[in-house]
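[agent] plan:
  1. take the single chain provided in the ticket
  2. run structure prediction with default settings
  3. attach structure tokens to the ticket
  4. add a short note for the reviewer (M.T.)
[agent] executing step 1
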Amino acid sequence: MSSVAKRNIKLGTVFAVGAVGAVALGGSIVSGALFNDTDTARVDINAATVVLSVNDNDNQGVIDLDFNNLKPGQTLSEKITVTNDGSIVGVGTLGSNFTNATPPANVDYSKLSVGVRPDAGVVSPLSSTQAAAVGSTLTPVTQLPANWDLGAIKPGQTKTFWVDVKLDSSAGNEYQGLHFGGNIPVTLTQQ
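[agent] step 2 finished; step 3 output follows
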């Protein structure tokens, strides 16, 4: 076979392989057009909420904890309910800083104790035995923690607590008719 014939066979083979490759690639060498389609996606972003509702015994939406006629050795209790009306879990706390407090002067406040406990079906007034049975931890006003932990409260969940106040049995006449008042914050914080 002549060298011209051999060269033509080689060139034909190269063209044939090139054509098969172009077909295998979907003809992309031949055409630059690609099919496409676009649609839209709606985006809606809503932030979560932490919304707190608090009620006391009268369910008027305001907490009024009135401990009246407290006698030496007696523990009085007031019920509060805390509801998470938000959309995410929150951790509740009941502060103990008694803002706007009006304490009388020259009184030993270590004889006045306060505590917070979950509702366990025991109502006021608590005897010492009942207080111990339901886990009431009373702390002198002079040594209160920064706040009491009310635990996690899920969206739509309501928890009930009792605030206990006790005047020590050793309290003397200096406590007669005295008034101690103030405000304590109830807070719900995102968990």
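[agent] step 4 note for reviewer: The chain has a mean pLDDT of 75.
[agent] ticket updated
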